[in-house]
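fwd from M.: "can u put these together and see what the complex looks like"

so here's what she sent:
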Amino acid sequence: MSTDQNSPDPVLQALAQLPEQDVDPWRAGRIRHHALSTLAQGASRWAGFFRFYDRFLEPALVASLTLAYLTWAVAAVNHLHGS
Amino acid sequence: MGVVEGEEGLVEGLRRGEATAFDRAYTMYRARLFGFLLRLTRRRDLAEDLLQETWIRLAKNARRLTPDTQLRAWLYTVARNLYLSHRRWVLVDLDRLTALTPPKGIAPDGTSPFDLAAAGETGRRLEEALGRLPIKYREVLLLVGVDGLTLAEAAQVLSLSPEALRQRLKRARDMVEEILSAAEGQKVRSP
């Protein structure tokens, strides 16, 4: 057999003749719509900011606020016991 | 590796986030990718899910493509990697499961007997033979034989050296011929 695509190989030729399969039109439309929405989100002027917010800013804000609340709570308890 | 016919300017458009470029790519490769995934997975629902995820990946990564990206190879690589990731998560070896199904069950999408007849006996036997191959041999035949990728592109998709790809392709092709010959022998023996 030759794997050189210029010389004919009966098995590869027969494989090339297999009928094309396609996803049904309704699902194809949904996939396209979903992907285009994702593409548009990336094109937004704010896309970079939102990516930064999702990856770093939001976790940092949640962690800092949690820490601040715990610090306040511990201080409040100490204050109550102290008084 | 040169630019695939029809792909000119496509990567540049995608890098700019153009919906028209995305639509062109989608029109060019949707059916081929779906056929590849369907014949790889043997399951229509799974093939549809993986197809969707492949295009979402393209949409998410469009701006990060390099100018010299070979889009067709890129898409097939993503689709194949998604399938391999899926396989790692399933407990049942789909290859063995597929091998156990009777020949008429190999039609991946619930195709009707009429469709099968229309597709031709040769095509049906080839589909069956493909279904019996282990994934690593099936995928190389799908890429080169069915979808017409160049050997260089297929080697890139499968992360193989050109020589390793040639050997695997030869082995896969020989296996298909063996399966077809065996099936022919059985047919002759049976009344």
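replying to her w this: Chain A has one domain: 10-82.
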